[in-house]
Amino acid sequence: MKHFSFLTAIVLSCTLLFSSCGASDTVKGTGIGAGAGGALGAGIGAIIGGGKGAAWGAGIGAVVGGSAGAVIGNKMDKQKKELEQINGAQVETINDGQAIKVTFESGILFATNSSTLSTASQSALTNFATSLNNNPDTDIQIYGHTDNTGSDAINNPLSEKRAQSVYNFLQTKGVSGTRMVSQGFGSTQPVADNSTTTGRSQNRRVEIYILPNEKMIQDAHQGR
């Protein structure tokens, strides 16, 4: 299992926070928030979890402001359109458009109680890897989740192994391991009601967060 430490979350959040100092409060016409208050809130959310889901407790940093934020948002929007063409991928922008969240239901990727990727899912992940390789200035966080059926002794390692399986597969397709981390959260972060069949299906998932790396942020501040 690969994961961000608490200190890493603080460093990343502070780096992004200070990079936004002096920026205007909004970027007109882009919909990207840029205020220092918003940046501080996002940074704190990354450190303490903020009730926002796995990635908020594991290293999504503060929002970058001003024209740099618009540059990052534009790059992320272009990649989002690529990713929306992948079968089985639920794609959404987060962090004021400066990051992307991709969700795969576990049933699409794995057989029941298995951490071995299905043959069908490998096509989708191959396309996903192509997009990541075409957009190299990002970091990737991979999180496995289960429903609450069964014990933690089963769910926790299963979620970790599934996240690691996705990590390993992407690496075989040329995505650098230095860009990626993986972690399992078991059943601790449901997004739907575990008392229903539909809800449990939604909770069995792998979430992948695509974040701007230091190079993208530096390039954005230089208008590139």
Please, could you describe this protein's structure?
- By secondary structure, the chain is of the alpha+beta class.
- The protein has one domain (6-221): OmpA-like domain (60s Ribosomal Protein L30, Chain: A), CATH 3.30.1330.
- It contains eight helices and seven strands, in the order αββααββααβαβαβα.
- It has helices at 6-19, 36-48, 66-83, 106-109, 119-134, 152-172, 197-203, 214-221; strands spanning 26-27, 32-33, 90-94, 99-105, 138-145, 180-184, 205-212.
- Strands 3-4-7-5-6 form a five-stranded mixed beta sheet.
- The longest helix is centred in the last third of the chain and has 21 residues, at 152-172.
- The protein is globular, with a radius of gyration of 17 Å.
- 44% of the residues are buried.
In brief, what are we looking at here?
With 224 residues, the chain is of the alpha+beta class. Helix content is 45%, strand content 17%.
Jot down its keywords:
5-stranded mixed β-sheet, alpha+beta, 45% helix, 17% strand, disordered N terminus, 60s Ribosomal Protein L30, Chain: A, two-stranded antiparallel ribbon, 224 residues
Q: Considering the protein shown, what is the CATH homologous superfamily?
A: OmpA-like domain
* SSE order: HEEHHEEHHEHEHEH
> What's the alpha carbon Rg, rounded to whole Å?
17 Å
What strand order characterises the main sheet? 3-4-7-5-6
* Alpha-beta classification: alpha+beta
Low-confidence stretches: 3-58
The largest β sheet comes out as: 5 strands, mixed
Number of helices: 8
Helix content: 40-55%
